[in-house]
Amino acid sequence: MLAHFRSAPRTKHLLLFTRLALYTGARSGAILGLTWDRVDLERGVIDYRNGPSTA
Q1: CB atoms inside a 10 Å sphere around CB 31
Q2: Most buried one in 4, 6, 16, 31, CB count within 10 A?
Q3: 55: Cβ contacts below 8 Å, ≥ 6 apart
């Protein structure tokens, strides 16, 4: 799947989403709910703790 997303045009967003899901184990809602204030590109850190919580 990743190889397909890398080679197919207009699928860069799907590649990024899939990598985030696979490498972090985050749920789709947490990934889609991310905001830039919770992403630290310099340190390579994403803070999912401030995202939507489930009971």
Answers
A1: 17
A2: 31
A3: none
Q: Which two tokens stand for residue 13?
A: 């967003």
User: Chain-centre distance of CA 14, in angstroms?
Assistant: 10
Q: Enumerate the β-bridge partners of residue 40.
A: 45
Indicate the length of the chain as a whole number. Answer: 55
Model confidence over 7-55: pLDDT tens digits?
888 888 999 999 999 999 999 999 999 999 999 999 999 998 865 565 5
| pTM of the predicted protein model | 0.72
Residue by residue, DSSP assigns the chain as -HHHHHHSTT-HHHHHHHHHHHHH---HHHHHT--GGGEETTTTEE--TTS----
Q: Which residue has the tokens 């799907």?
A: 14
